[in-house]
Design brief:
This protein is α/β, with parallel strands linked by helices. It is about 45% helix and about 15% strand.
Length: about 325
């Protein structure tokens, strides 16, 4: 088997849980292929910036890369199911469900091929929480009313309905926005709070565990995929599956450390951690229902069976949540 090196477009710097997951994928691919398949990783957007990755991979400017459904809502329509708020906010459950859905559902596989790429594996942002400054506390949906909130996609729509004033910012702008009072709260992720040092300018974090952004995948150029042997394709998918577990273990551990350190002041201010009740969380998902129906209708308009895809995704989430409840995480099993 001839040695094959794939150019990988990574928009992030070589640090943090997701960078470690990509490096894990590269190391395992090389080791398990006997050195015949390798990644040439271009970090920090050196090859392609985030919004250019899908086009770059589909055209062959890169062989592989990481894409977000939110940046390509039409071309990555198939991946967008992972961005819909669901009660199963666990990172491992979400990525496992997405991995199985994307590698077995023929409708979705065809959508990727139409975009010139093939799905390899999944990432997640982990659960969406809200970090607030200026003494603001968020304990239930109605507390968002009148507040300036940074949020995206369906999450922003639900909060807008609840009376929040939605502010559109990139995550790199959140620190300054919280510090100056431009926003009262920002939807974010625990591991990112530490990476972007936002606990220095926050006073509370509301643990809403409101779904997760799992419309976030590693993809490969379709032509490059078709040139591989069936054994090589199988190995790529297998290593992708192993990466799901590896990344989930890292991000879950990182998030737990952040929860523990927020009240101590180790990450900046002494930040109050507010755990939402099951009743308050349920209200979030009740308000999300009409946007789920809108997503299904959009998929139907695109010629797909939106309800069937949604039902299958729900079934897989239930399957992996049950497995987690019964057996724990894979890395903790004997």
């Amino acid at each position: 088997m001839a040695e094959t090196t794939f150019r990988f477009a990574a928009s992030i710097p070589n640090r943090g849980a997701r960078a470690e997951a990509i490096q894990f994928f590269a190391d395992q691919l090389e080791a398990q292929s006997g050195g015949n398949m390798k990644l040439d990783i271009h970090w920090s957007g050196a090859l392609l910036k985030y919004r250019a990755i899908l086009g770059g991979v589909s055209s062959g400017a890169a062989d592989m890369g990481s894409v977000l459904a939110a940046y390509e809502p039409q071309k990555m329509r198939a991946l967008s199911v992972g961005d819909i708020p669901v009660p199963q906010a666990d990172s491992w459950v979400g990525m496992r469900a997405m991995y199985e859905l994307m590698t077995t559902n023929e409708q979705l596989q065809h959508e990727f091929e139409e975009a010139g790429v093939v799905y390899i594996t999944n990432y997640t942002t982990s659960a969406i929480e809200f970090e607030c400054g200026g003494g603001v506390r968020i304990e239930k949906l109605e507390d968002f009313a009148g507040k300036r909130i940074r949020a995206t996609s369906i999450y922003a729509n639900v909060l807008d309905d609840a009376g929040a004033n939605i502010v559109n910012l990139s995550y790199s702008e959140v620190y300054q926005a919280l510090d100056t009072g431009l926003v009262d709260c920002s939807g974010g992720y625990l591991y990112a709070m530490r990476a972007f040092k936002t606990p220095e300018v926050t006073t509370s974090v509301a643990l809403t565990n409101w779904g997760q952004i799992a419309g976030f995948a590693m993809v490969m150029n379709k032509w490059a995929w078709d040139d591989l042997t069936s054994e090589q394709q199988k190995l790529l998918r297998q290593v992708g599956s192993e990466m799901v577990d590896s990344f989930a273990e890292r991000v879950i551990a990182d998030n737990q450390k952040v929860i523990e350190k927020l009240p101590t002041g180790e990450l900046g201010n002494k930040v109050e951690v507010i755990e939402w009740s099951d009743e308050s969380r349920a209200e979030l998902f009740d308000e999300s229902e009409k946007y789920i129906n809108a997503w299904i209708a959009d998929m139907n308009r695109a010629g797909l069976n939106g309800q069937a895809i949604w039902d299958e995704y729900q079934s897989l989430l239930t399957k992996y949540q049950a497995e987690l409840d019964e057996n724990g995480y894979p890395w903790n099993r004997s």
